[in-house]
Design a protein that fits this description.
It contains eleven helices and eight strands. The chain is of the alpha/beta class. An eight-stranded mixed sheet has the order 7-5-6-4-1-2-3-8, sandwiched between helices. Strand 1, helix 1 and strand 2 form a beta-alpha-beta unit. The radius of gyration is 26 Å and the shape is elongated.
Length: 325
């Protein structure tokens, strides 16, 4: 598979860097400068694919001015609204033209040098996926603790192969990128899908940098929904827990029932109808509601996927080639 040409006089595109953008206007100049420098370090052939995911600031306007004169092939895609960073990465992968594709955060908390290392590793040809594995993070204490708790639980319930610090950026071959994009699943996890499809994978350790500007849109509510999507998409844990709770409840019910029957025969219970009422209502209401909630979550996600709605909608797409007016 060969990459598209960047235009007359330009190196063929070999490397594509996908950058999801949401509220990152303050760092975009630095991001573009680092991508231009990376292109030089790689010997040319790099393109930048920016996906503005319904950003509330002027990120789109700023990029539309920066990219035409930045000196490297680039694309600018704008979503019709905010669909989330993983949806933006999928959109960028869909439009990427390089033989090797990597996702890079626009807040620069993941160093650009890491993406450069991804491409060097992929270029050797012995791996298909390179994942950034955080060894340390320069985040506030509360944020760091919550992140460790989140990814620790994620590893235990979804994918044990996930690095302890989680996954935010990764690189892969174009074949893997196309395979990821072809998996159109609503309310799923891009990282979960990356590990589900397999391929030859290697981890590259790095230290997450401190955020220098802006505020993360990765809120507790988004993390909670992302965690639920991951669990229901890749694990039968909720159903397993429901079965275990049902089994434990049944044993408890049988035990209490025997005690109640013995107490009735011995004459310790003389209230008419108490025994039957106790046996029927014991734990039944809670178990039913819990079961309906778990099953309903699976049914709802199945229904959402049956609609075949796209994971994101791009309302504009511009391609900038160096040397063109």
């Amino acid at each position: 598979m060969t990459a598209d040409s960047a235009g007359e006089g330009c190196s063929p595109i070999r490397y594509s860097v996908v950058v999801p953008v949401y509220g990152n206007a303050e760092t975009l100049n630095a991001v573009v400068d680092r991508l231009v420098a990376m292109d030089g370090d790689l010997g040319g052939g790099l393109e930048a694919v920016f996906v503005v995911d319904g950003s509330p600031d002027d990120s789109y306007q700023l990029l539309s001015k920066l990219l035409p004169g930045c000196g490297i092939p680039s694309q600018l895609v704008a979503h019709s609204r905010n669909f989330g960073s993983f949806a933006a990465i999928r959109t960028g992968f869909r439009h990427a033209r390089g033989d090797y594709v990597a996702a890079m955060a626009a807040d620069l908390q993941e160093p650009a040098e890491l993406v450069h290392e991804f491409f060097l590793r992929l270029r050797e040809g012995d791996v298909d996926v390179v994942v950034g594995a955080r060894t340390k993070r320069q985040d506030p204490l509360l944020s760091s603790v919550m992140a460790r708790l989140f990814w620790g639980t994620y590893r235990r319930t979804v994918h044990r192969a996930i690095p302890p610090g989680g996954v935010d950026i990764f690189g892969c071959t174009r074949a893997v990128a196309e395979r990821l994009v072809s998996l159109e699943e609503s309310h799923s996890s891009l990282v979960g899908l990356l590990y589900w499809i397999g391929y030859r994978r290697v981890e590259v350790p790095y230290e997450r940098q401190e955020r220098t500007s802006g505020k993360s849109g990765w809120s507790v509510r988004r993390k909670y929904r992302y965690f639920l999507d991951s669990v229901y998409s890749f694990s039968d844990l909720p159903i397993t827990l429901l079965v275990l709770i049902g089994a434990a409840g049944s044993l408890l019910t049988v035990s209490v029932s025997l005690v109640t029957i013995v107490a009735r025969i011995a004459g310790f219970i003389d209230v008419p109808g108490y025994t039957a009422l106790m046996l029927v209502t014991l734990m039944s209401a809670t178990s039913i509601l819990l079961g309906l909630g778990v099953v309903g979550s699976y049914v709802w996600r199945t229904y959402e996927n049956s609609k075949h709605r796209p994971t994101a909608i791009a309302m504009s797409h511009d391609v900038f080639t160096p040397g063109e007016n």
